[in-house]
């Protein structure tokens, strides 16, 4: 049962972008709908759990949520350029590497020779996995231009996600307490990012469903952490990249050659191996 709870965040988070793309509506409607869904779910959780909600937690949570909206909206934009099966491994890998390096440089998380070695191996595995999942033997000029746009967009996305994680950690805001304020910030950020693009439509309403999935994954992450430990819950939560990447190929029909499929499979294995190494290093 404990393992099942720990794997739920990966199942929910890995399915989100597949739902978003299936529903459609473009990056702006997807962003707005997802943030509204997260707010609705988080409001219900807050009314039931009643976690501490001080002025500091409220402010930090809202700021964190705004950063998340930047990260998520740009991830959606990247999907429009290069598809789910390329976006998600790159996005996940960049998020893991950036948050890990921040933890090492600011919080000095790697304190022994073993954790340093494991950490370096993990980062190298993740970077190699990113390269392999984007492999394309013959890429047209148009495809190269889209990959460049997608990569630049994902770098911006990564900065948003990094801010989302870092600001809460800098002020030691508990995840349960931050859940509702973060969702408020997500909606505020979503409105700021999308209001010029007329996102208020039926697609935004339909994209509330993925937002519910995201918030549910977040909740189960908090529930599983005290049961299986932060390291294991963190590692398992990141395996959602397998679901989103393979779902992009087999459910959304993103075309890959046989050679590309092999490279994608090896890339995913390397990313997961890197995540496991980081999980061990965090113990």
From TrEMBL:
It is found in: Endomembrane system. GO terms for molecular function: carbohydrate transmembrane transporter activity. The chain crosses the membrane at residues 6-24, 31-49, 55-76, 88-107, 113-132, 152-172, 178-195, 207-225, 231-252, 261-281. Keywords: Membrane, Sugar transport, Transmembrane, Transmembrane helix, Transport. GO terms for cellular component: endomembrane system; membrane. CDD domains: glucose_uptake_GlcU. It is a multi-pass membrane protein. The keyword Plastid does not apply. It holds the Pfam family Sugar_transport. Belongs to the GRP transporter (TC 2.A.7.5) family. This is Glucose transporter GlcU. The lineage of its organism: Bacteria, Bacillati, Bacillota, Bacilli, Bacillales.
């Amino acid at each position: 049962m404990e393992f099942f709870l720990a794997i739920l965040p990966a199942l929910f988070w890995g399915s989100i972008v597949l739902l978003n793309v299936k529903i459609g509506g473009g990056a702006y409607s997807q962003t707005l709908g997802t943030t509204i869904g997260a707010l609705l779910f988080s409001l219900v959780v807050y009314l039931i759990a009643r976690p501490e909600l001080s002025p500091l937690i409220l402010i930090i949570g809202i700021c964190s949520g705004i950063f998340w909206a930047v990260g998520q909206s740009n991830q959606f934009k990247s999907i429009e350029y290069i598809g789910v099966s390329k976006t998600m491994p790159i996005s996940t890998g960049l998020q893991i590497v950036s948050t890990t390096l921040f933890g090492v440089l600011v919080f000095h998380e790697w304190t022994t020779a073993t954790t340093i070695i494991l950490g370096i191996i993990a980062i190298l595995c993740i970077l190699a996995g990113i390269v392999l999942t984007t492999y394309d033997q013959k890429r047209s000029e148009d495809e190269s231009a889209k990959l460049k746009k997608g990569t630049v967009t994902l770098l911006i996305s990564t900065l948003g996600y990094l801010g989302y994680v870092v600001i809460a950690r800098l002020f030691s805001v508990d995840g349960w307490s931050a859940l509702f304020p973060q969702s408020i910030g997500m909606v505020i950020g979503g409105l700021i990012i999308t209001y010029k693009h007329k996102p208020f439509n039926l697609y935004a309403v339909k994209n509330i469903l993925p937002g519910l999935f995201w918030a549910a994954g977040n909740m189960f992450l908090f529930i599983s952490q005290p049961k299986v430990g932060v390291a294991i819950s963190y590692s398992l939560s990141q395996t959602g990249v397998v679901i989103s990447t393979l779902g992009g190929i087999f459910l959304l029909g993103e075309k890959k050659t046989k050679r590309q499929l092999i490279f994608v499979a090896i890339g995913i294995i390397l990313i997961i191996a890197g995540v496991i190494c980081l999980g061990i290093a965090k113990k």
